[in-house]
Amino acid sequence: MERRLTAILAADVAGYSRLMSRDEEGTLSALKAHRREMADARIAAHAGRIVKLTGDGMLVEFASVVNAVACAADIQRRMRQRNAGVPAERCLEFRIGIHLGDIIFDAADNDIYGEGVNIAARLEGLARPGGVAVSGTVRDSVGNRLDLVFEDAGEQMLKNIERPVRVYTVDVFAGAPPPAAADAPGRKAESANGKPSIAVLPFSNMSGDPEQDYFSDGIAEDIITDLSKISALHVVARHTAFTYKGKAVDVPAAAREMGVKFVLEGSVRKAGPRVRIAAQLIDGATGGHLWAERYDRDLTDIFAIQDEITRTIVDQLKVRLLSEEKTALGRAPTGNIEAYTTYLKAREFFRTRAKDSLQLARRLFSRAVDIDPAYARAYAGIADCDSILAAWHGASISLEALFATCAKALELDPHLAEAHASHGLALSTAGRPTEAVAAFERAIALDPNSYEGHYFYARHAFAAGDFEKAVALYSRCAEIDPDDYRAPFLITNALHALGRLDEEVAQARLGLERAERALKAHPENSDPAQHGAVALALLGEKERAREWLARALTIDPDSTFVRYNAACTYSLLGEADRAIDLLETCLRQSGSEEMKLWIKNDSDLDPLRNHPRYTDLLMLIA
C-alpha cells in the first residue's frame, strides 16, 4: 500500500432508482452509452484514471486538481447537449463531487481508500443534478486557472467526517458555451462555424499482407489532405481519425466521439498491377449509407480514384468549391505510382525519428525524387530528415544544400503546408528564428491540422524560451494526434518553467499512458522508452525510470536523442556527473544551435544548474 495526494472525483446519476423503476433496460442502456461514448473519453483526455464503477456511479482519480475540475465541467456541459430533446422523465443527470486529499492506494485490488475518498463521495451528494460540488481545498488549488464560477455554500458537516468542510458549488456553464451538438445522439453535427463535418477512417488493408498497411493508410491520408483543402468543410485530422485503426467501428458512436455528421470508410486490396478500392459515405447520426462505390482499376489509376471519391463527397454534401479549390483538387501530388508508393514507405520510417529510420526514410524520399523530379512532398521529406539528422545525430549536412531542397519543394508547390513546415525546421536548425516563425505560421495557416507544423514550431518556441507559445503548440499537437506521447512529455518542460506543476504531473502521466501503448505496438522503437524514462524520473518512480532507460539504451545505444534523454533522466535522479558526461557526448556528436538552446532551457536539467561542470559546459556553448 502507498499513500499519495490526489484529486478524487465521485459521480453518480441523480434519481437513478426512479429512472430504473420506470424503464430498467432503457436506463441501463443509456447510462452505458453515456459512459462509453463520452465520459470515458473525457476522463482520459484530462489524464484521469477510473478507479472503479459502482452501479450508477464511478470513482476517478487525477494527479492534477485542475484537470479534475475541468473534466467535471466538460462532462456536465456535454451531458446537457446529450439530453437536449430527451423527455425530462428519461434524462440522466450526473452529480459530481471533487476533493483534494490524502488517500491510500492498494495495489492488490487497484483501489483507493481513506477520508479523501469519503469526502468526495459526500460532496457528490450535495451537488445539484447536472452540477459539481467541490471542497475548499479544491477551490483554493484551482484559483483562477479555469473559466468557472465558484459559489460559496459555507461550511457543511458531512456524514462520518469529524470536522466541517467548506463547500463550493460550480457553475460549469459560466464563461463557456456548451460544446457543439456533436455529442447529442441523432442530431446534426456541424463544426463550430456551421460547416458540414466529416471524418475519414483509416481504410482497411484487404491485401492479406500487413506490410501493405502503408499503402491503404496513404490512400485515406491523401483523401483527408484533399478534403482539407475545401474551405466549406470541417475535416477531422488524420491522427484523430486513425485512432480507430484496426478496430471494429460503431460508426454512429465514432461520429459522436469525433463530433462529425459524416464518416467515410473504405478498404483497399492491392495485387500486382491492380487495385480494388471500396468506399462508403455514412450518415453519422443514423449509420445509413449515403453513397457507396467499388473501384476495380489499374494501380496507375489510384490518383483518379482518390479524386473521384473526393468529388463525390463534395457532391453528396452539396459543398460549393471556390475556383482555386477546384484547381487544387485536380492536381495530383505525383503522376507516378512508383514514386507515390516509395514516398508512402518513406513517411512510415520517418515517423519513428530514430537515426537508422531517418537515414532509410531519406534514401526512400530521394528515390521518389529520382523517379519523379517534380514531387514536392518528397523534397520536403528529404529536408525534414536532413534537419533532424544534422541537429540531433551529428550528420554532416550542408546548410546550402538543405535550403536548396526546401526551395525546390516550395518552387514546385508554394501552397504545400509540409514544404513551409520543412522550411521552418531548416531555418530553426540554422539559427534563423524570425524567419523560422514566419514559415511555421504559414504552414499552419495552409493546414490547421498539420501535426509537423505545430510540432516543429513548438520545439522551436521552447528552445527559444517562449514557454507559453510552446505549451499552446504542444497542446494542439496532442489534440491533432490523440496517440501522440511526445507532445505531453515535452509540454512538461514548458509547464515546469511556467510554474504550473500540477499540470506538469498530469501531462507526464498522460504521456506515459500513451508511451506504454506505443511500446506494445512497436517494441523495437526506443523513442517512447527514452521519453518515458524522463517522465518516470520526474514523477519519482526511480526504478521504472532506470528500466525504461536501459531499454532505450539497449535498442539505440549510439543515438544522440537517447543519450540526451538519458542525461535528463540522470539529472532528475540526482546523478549529476553521469548526466553531464552524456551532455558532453551529445555536444561532440552534434553541437547544433538547437541542441545548445535545449541544454540551456530544458527544465529537466535544472538539478545541474549549480554544478561546476555544468557551468563550464554553458561557457563552452555560449
Please describe what this structure looks like:
Mean pLDDT is 85; it is low at 175-193. Strands 1, 2, 3, 4, 5, 6, 7 and 8 form an eight-stranded mixed β-sheet that branches. Strands 9, 10, 11, 12, 13 and 14 form a six-stranded mixed β-sheet that branches. The two termini are 48 Å apart. The protein is globular, with a radius of gyration of 26 Å. Helix 2 packs antiparallel against helix 3, helix 16 packs antiparallel against helix 17 (451-463) and helix 17 (451-463) packs antiparallel against helix 18 (467-480). The chain has helices spanning 16-22, 24-45, 65-83, 115-126, 136-142, 213-228, 238-241, 251-258, 302-316, 323-329, 337-350, 355-371, 376-393, 399-412, 417-429, 433-446, 451-463, 467-480, 486-497, 501-521, 527-538, 542-555, 560-573, 576-589, 593-601, 612-621, and strands spanning 2-13, 48-54, 57-62, 94-106, 111-113, 132-135, 149-156, 165-171, 197-200, 204-205, 234-235, 262-271, 274-283, 289-298. A hairpin with a 5-residue loop joins strand 13 (274-283) and strand 14 (289-298). It is built from 26 helices and 14 strands. The relative contact order is 0.06. The chain folds into four domains: 2-171, Nucleotide cyclase, GGDEF domain (Alpha-Beta Plaits, 2-Layer Sandwich); 183-332, TolB, N-terminal domain (Rossmann fold, 3-Layer(aba) Sandwich); 333-448, Alpha Horseshoe (Serine Threonine Protein Phosphatase 5, Tetratricopeptide repeat), CATH 1.25.40.10; 465-622, Tetratricopeptide repeat domain (Serine Threonine Protein Phosphatase 5, Tetratricopeptide repeat). By secondary structure, the protein is α/β, with parallel strands linked by helices.
